[in-house]
Each structure stands twice: as C-alpha cells, then as structure tokens.
Specification:
The complex is a heterotrimer of chains A (132), B (114) and C (251). With 132 residues, chain A is mainly alpha-helical. Chain A folds into 2 domains: 65 residues, Fumarate reductase/succinate dehydrogenase, transmembrane subunit (3 helical TM bundles of succinate and fumarate reductases, Up-down Bundle); 40 residues, no CATH class. Helix content of chain A is 74%, strand content 5%. Chain A has a two-stranded antiparallel ribbon. Chain C is of the alpha+beta class and 251 residues long. In chain C, strands 2-1-5-3-4 form a 5-stranded mixed sheet. In chain C, strands 6-7 form a two-stranded antiparallel ribbon. The chains are: A mainly alpha (132), B mainly alpha (114), C alpha+beta (251). Chains in contact: A-B, A-C, B-C.
Chain lengths: 132, 114, 251
C-alpha cells in the first residue's frame, strides 16, 4: 500500500484562532512584569543596604511618574496572576478524601482565595503597624 | 536511573514562585506603590523593617522565586510564540534567574548579618 | 410545517490526488430544526456532492468519530445543530493539529501510536485466573477514576491543545488523561511503568495548562486536571531518582 499524502496545516498565529488562547498568553505575560518587579525589589534591597544616598535614588525612581505607572501595571499583573493562579490551583491538587467526604475543586478554590485574602490582610496590617 | 528531564525541578521553582506571587504580590505592590502607610518608603522606616530577619529573608526568597517563575513562563511563552528551541535559550532564562537569585541571597545574607 | 430553511455550509475540501492546497466549498443545504451538522454533511453527500469525505458512525455522541471544527470550535458534529448557526453560515473543517487525509477526515495514527505508549489498560500487581474471582473495588475507589474513564477518543481535546500542534512529540490531553485513569484505579499497579513516559518533556511537562482541552470535552473528562495532578507526583519521582542515583541531571 502506498502511503497517503496528507496536508499539515501551519501553527502560525495560532493565538488568533480563539479568545481563550489570547487569555492564556495574557496570563503568561504577567510573568514578565513579575520578573521586572523582582528586579525592582532587588535594587531597592541593595540600595537600602548601601545607605541613604542610594536609597533616595531608588525612592525617587519608584515615586516618579514612570515608577508609579510601573507599580500600577505591577498591581494589575500580580492581581490577574493571583486570580488565574488560584482558579487553576485545584487542577494540580490530588483529589483528597476525608473518610467518605470528598474535598471538591470548588472547596480548594475557595480555600485558596481565603488564604489570599488572609495573607494580604496580614501584610497590610503588619505594614500599617510596623512601618509607621 | 537518570531523570529524563530537568523540567520538574524548574517547574517546582516556578510553582513556588507563582504561589508566593499570588499570595503576597498584590499586597506588597500596594504597600510600596501607594505607599501604604504614607511614610513607608522613608529610609529609617524601611531600614527598621528590614532589620527584622524574617522580612529580609521573605523578600530575598520572593525575589529569587519570582525570577524563576518569570524565567520558566517566559521561556515557554517564547516557544509558544514560535521561537525555535535552541540550547542557549533555557540557559539564558534559567541562568539569569540563578544569577539574580544568588544576588538576592547575598543581599539578604548581608541584611541578616547586620 | 413550514418549508425547510436554507443554510450555507462551507466545507474544507482536500483530495490529495487532485489538490495541492485545501480550499473551501460552499453548499446551500435545506434544514429542519432537528438537523445536526452531521446530517447537513450527509445531505451534501447524498444530494449535492458525493465526493465529500467525512467520518461518522453512531450519531449519538458515543463513538467519537464525527469530531470536526465548526466555526473554529472542536465539536462532535452529531450533537451540534444547524439551527444554532442560522442565518450565519457554518464553516466545517477537519480537526485542528492533525494531518488532513481527505476533506474532513484527519489521520489519527499519531494519537493511536501515543496511546499505546502509556499502557492504557489495567496492569495488576499479581496476575489472577478466573478461579481467583473478580477484582473488588469500593464505590469510593471507583469515583477516583470514573470521570476520566468516560473518554471516547474523539480527539476534540487534541484540536483544542496548541501545545499538541506546536510540539510533535507531546503525548497530548486524552493519552495523559487515560494514563491517569489507570494510575488512579485501585486495581492497577502500573504507575511506575507509566511514569517512564509521563515524567518527560513529551509527557506531563509538555502541558502548559492552556486548559481548553477540558472546556471542549463532550464527555466531561477534565484532561487538564488529570495531567496537572500528575505534575507534583512526577516532580517527586524525579527528586527520588536524584537522591537514589546521586547524579545530576543534564538539560
């Protein structure tokens, strides 16, 4: 039997085929901002260690217009990352069973959102108390 | 037997960074970006906060894990966008994250030892 | 009863002995409210163009043969209805990411080859003979794998997975979900053998959790969940190997 000739379609521009693909790429793109924010933090930690002069430069950059815009972008990126992360988290958790009671994906999702709220509140309270 | 791929190790770092970024990222950006409370970015205030070893350690670990999180996602997104697989690409991504993590750990160590 | 309405069906055509590139052909099909896209294709074949090629068998979403792209969505054409698209036209194409054999028929050989690699059957710890009696399992144990066992190999999840389209060696959603189905079965002891295939770049690590596979599954299987629940286990497996061998891994 001779092999059938088949036609293979190109994957070029595959994200144009469905909105879900573009949402996926947007979710992945948050990592670029998260990486840049990590570098910003590293710079801040180093500057603070070096002394008041270096810290003033960092602080001026953070509070400049581009610095504020970057923080707005970072807030959006971290929030979207957190929202999508917790939505997908139940998929990576092995199904748990407590006796006859099954821990559902919805429950894992809600628990994760609760942990997010708790951690955020704790951080803000600590900042309000400790940084004043 | 030899592991077939280093991917699980990078995925674990990616997952840890992603979890940490999701849990504390938005609040941390609010604190430093607003800033909250208003005097949070003062030199003395921040030095006082960083004097606590847990704060310094938490920030250092966050920086390192977020860099690995970013390196992993950026690498795979580049592949998704059609960038051909080349050996130097993961080396640049994960090498960069490793360098940044070492720097962060160094700075953290300096803070903790102070 | 009113006269049947007319809907335009635009089908991808490709006959390898005749065409160098696929093209689209428009057909005007009279339809009634209960007609599926599959019945529209059958009307074309019976009345308009007998050379239109497509696969189908059961007409009731059980056999998994009639999957195709309808207006860009991977669906079973037997449970997709023309009335939901009228008065717009319906564009019918073969499943994405598979080589086109002829018109709407794709070549599933790659999937079948990969399916065999994960040993999609029970591998008991000890062989039993009929005299030993049946394998016993509690309803709770059955719940652990029942969802994933509903897979009908229709390949819609492959057409929804860009990673399968981008990476030729990726095992893909259904194969990994079926591997998980047997791993999760209390009667099975083949986990270590399947781990060889699953814990690799072509296995669970080929998945970036786009998540569309679970959205398009007509049987409620959650391949994205099945794959990603295996990632922590696979990572632990790698760690265990590293500790045992004391060797570092090479990228």
């Amino acid at each position: 039997m001779t092999a059938l000739r088949t036609h293979t379609r190109s994957m070029k521009g595959w994200w144009r085929r469905h909105p879900a693909y573009r949402q996926y790429l947007l979710r992945e793109a948050t990592s670029v901002v998260i990486g840049l924010y990590a570098l910003c933090l590293l710079w801040g930690m180093t500057a603070l260690l070096l002394g008041p002069g270096a810290h003033d430069v960092w602080r001026a950059c953070v509070q400049s217009l581009p610095g504020r815009a970057f923080h707005l972008l970072a807030l959006a990126a971290f929030s979207w990352h957190a929202w999508t992360w917790f939505r997908l988290l139940p998929l990576t958790v092995a199904p748990l069973r407590l006796g006859r009671y099954r821990i559902t994906q919805t429950l894992v999702h809600r628990a994760a959102l609760g942990a997010w709220a708790l951690a955020s509140a704790a951080l803000l309270v600590a900042a309000a108390g400790g940084l004043r | 037997m030899r592991p077939r791929s280093p991917e699980p190790l990078f995925w674990t770092l990616f997952g840890a960074g992603g979890m940490l970024a999701a849990l504390v990222g938005p609040a941390l950006v609010l604190i430093l970006g607003l800033p909250f409370p208003p005097g949070a970015l003062e030199y003395a205030t921040l030095r006082g906060a960083m004097g606590h070893p847990l704060v310094a350690l938490g920030l250092g670990v966050s920086v390192g894990l977020w860099l690995f999180h970013a390196a992993h996602r950026i690498l795979h997104t580049l592949y998704d966008l059609g960038v051909p697989h080349a050996p130097w690409l993961p080396r640049v991504c994960y090498g960069g994250a490793t360098a940044g993590t070492l720097a962060a750990l160094g700075v953290t160590l300096a803070w903790v030892l102070q | 009863m009113s006269d049947p309405r007319i809907i335009v069906m635009e089908c991808l055509r490709y006959h390898p002995e005749r065409d160098t590139e696929p093209y689209h052909q428009r057909f005007e099909v009279p339809f009634t409210p209960e007609m599926s896209v599959l019945e529209g294709l059958q009307y074309i074949k019976d009345h308009l163009d007998g050379s239109l090629t497509f696969r189908w068998s059961c007409r009731m979403a059980v056999c998994g043969n009639c999957g195709c792209m309808v207006n860009g969505e991977p669906v079973l054409s037997c449970q997709t209805f023309l009335r939901d698209y009228h008065p717009e036209c319906v564009r019918v194409e073969p499943l994405d990411h598979f080589p086109i054999q002829r018109d709407l028929a794709v070549d599933p050989a790659d999937f079948l080859d990969k399916l065999q690699q994960v040993a999609p059957y029970l591998i008991p710890a000890q062989d039993r003979i009929p005299e030993d009696g049946p394998y016993r399992q509690t309803p709770e144990q059955m719940q652990d794998y029942l969802d994933t066992s509903a897979c009908i190999n229709c390949l819609l999840c492959y057409a929804a997975c860009p990673q399968y389209g981008l990476k030729a060696d990726f095992l893909g959603p259904a194969v990994l979900a079926l591997a998980h189905r047997y791993n999760a079965d209390s009667r099975d002891a083949g986990r270590a053998r399947r781990m060889e295939v699953m814990n690799g770049d072509a296995g669970v690590w080929g998945c970036t959790l786009v998540g569309r596979c679970s959205e398009v599954c007509p049987k409620g299987v959650d391949p994205a969940g099945a794959i990603n629940r295996n990632k922590p286990a696979a990572a632990l497996d790698t760690l265990r190997r590293l500790l045992q061998s004391g060797r570092t891994c090479t990228p």
